[in-house]
């Protein structure tokens, strides 16, 4: 018999069922179903979390078939970087737009013809055939059939930021072979270089300068007050000369090199003070799509008024950095440019390709950017009547 105490809690008339030892370890059916359901829910949540894009992020819309006109446009100051989408942004579209039209909103990648905006840096040493007019005196710069200007195509790009900027032009390249080589190799590419039309090996040096990233201008000798000096007299523009004579001289000088954005006066206090003479000069520059930099040495210059009347992009120098000898004097002029840039937003300086000037500017350029000032080409600070 079983002991009495073993069945004291068992209902009367019911015998205790015997359970197989293995079955004691299994969960009841209800708990087993609950466990299976929990595992299914947990597994589904994990799959959602581990997907590259959760279900709540809708798939990007299909791209319509684009009409590609060229490579994706590089950043230029006329189109700030914030208008460009991040690489791989969802919902990006590729559209074709007018190069002069304002950028549309939204996530878009703007595809433009690079030749409509500027030159490919890798081809910067090669003239754009559409911007060259063959003449008896050589290849002359000219607008193309679409209205593109050498001033735009040959301009060096810059950040487009609104901070303080300094444009610095170093002239006299081509006169001394050693000085020209040192200026091109030592100066940062943001410095604009100006070639003298009577220099040597100008085409070769222009190609080298452009390959190094420099923007290029051409110096044009103009009549000063007093007796003209040296070898510049033969080709110098003069107030008393006939209009056609000055134009012939000017075109001869313009044909010495290619791939430049405009001209800068060499001396010329008397010529730049004569409105009639300057109107002839600016009329030719405007037709050819070139800019003008006044070196700022003459307070009587009417260059700005004449340039704007002919639609010529214009800039004026604030200081000649090496008018006085010595490294200290050059640094003082560079400090002056920094003060002007911080107050006005930009400043323009000019100098010559002398060894002392080049070495001083090269060392200064390494420090000025650390002080929050951007070095830019002359074209970046020019006032352009066609765009303003």
Automatic annotation (TrEMBL):
Kindly state which keywords UniProt assigns to this record, in alphabetical order: Membrane, Transmembrane, Transmembrane helix
Q: Which Pfam families match?
A: Polysacc_deac_2 (PF04748)
Q: Could you tell me which residues belong to the region Disordered?
A: 1-23, 52-99
- Origin: domain of life: Bacteria
Annotated transmembrane regions: 32-50
Q: Which PANTHER family match?
A: DIVERGENT POLYSACCHARIDE DEACETYLASE SUPERFAMILY (PTHR30105:SF2), UNCHARACTERIZED YIBQ-RELATED (PTHR30105)
Q: What is this protein called?
A: Divergent polysaccharide deacetylase family protein
Protein's organism: Chelativorans intermedius
């Amino acid at each position: 018999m079983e002991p009495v105490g073993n069945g004291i809690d068992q209902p009367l008339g019911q015998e205790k069922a015997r359970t197989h030892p293995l079955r004691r370890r299994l969960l009841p059916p209800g708990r087993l179903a609950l466990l299976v359901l929990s595992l299914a829910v947990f597994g589904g949540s994990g799959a959602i979390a581990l997907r590259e894009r959760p279900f709540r992020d809708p798939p990007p819309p299909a791209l319509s078939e684009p009409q590609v006109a060229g490579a994706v446009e590089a950043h230029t100051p006329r189109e700030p970087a914030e208008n460009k989408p991040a690489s791989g942004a969802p919902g990006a579209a590729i559209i074709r737009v007018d190069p002069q039209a304002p950028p549309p909103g939204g996530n878009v990648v703007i595809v433009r013809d690079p030749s409509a905006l500027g030159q490919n840096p890798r081809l910067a040493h090669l003239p754009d055939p559409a911007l060259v007019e063959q003449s008896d005196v050589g290849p002359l710069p000219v607008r193309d059939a679409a209205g593109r200007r050498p001033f735009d195509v040959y301009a060096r790009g810059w950040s487009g930021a609104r901070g303080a900027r300094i444009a610095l032009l170093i002239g006299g390249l081509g006169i001394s072979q050693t000085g020209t080589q040192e200026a091109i190799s030592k100066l940062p590419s943001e410095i604009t270089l100006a070639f003298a039309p009577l220099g040597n090996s100008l085409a070769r040096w222009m190609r080298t300068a452009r390959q190094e990233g420099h923007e290029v201008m051409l110096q044009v000798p103009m009549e000063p007050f007093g007796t003209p000096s040296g070898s510049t007299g033969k080709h110098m523009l003069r107030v008393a000369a006939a209009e056609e004579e000055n134009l012939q001289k000017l075109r001869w000088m313009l044909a010495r090199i290619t791939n430049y954005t405009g001209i800068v006066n060499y001396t010329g206090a008397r010529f730049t003070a004569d409105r009639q003479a300057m109107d002839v000069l600016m009329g030719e520059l405007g037709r050819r799509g070139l800019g003008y930099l006044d070196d700022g040495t003459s307070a009587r210059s009417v260059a700005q008024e004449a340039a704007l009347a002919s639609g010529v992009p214009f800039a004026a120098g604030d200081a000649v950095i090496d008018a006085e000898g010595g490294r200290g004097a050059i640094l003082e002029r560079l400090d002056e440019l920094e003060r002007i840039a911080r107050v006005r937003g930009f400043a323009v300086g000019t100098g010559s390709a002398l060894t002392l000037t080049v070495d001083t500017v090269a060392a200064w350029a390494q420090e000025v950017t650390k002080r929050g000032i951007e070095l830019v080409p002359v074209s970046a600070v020019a006032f352009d009547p066609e765009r303003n």
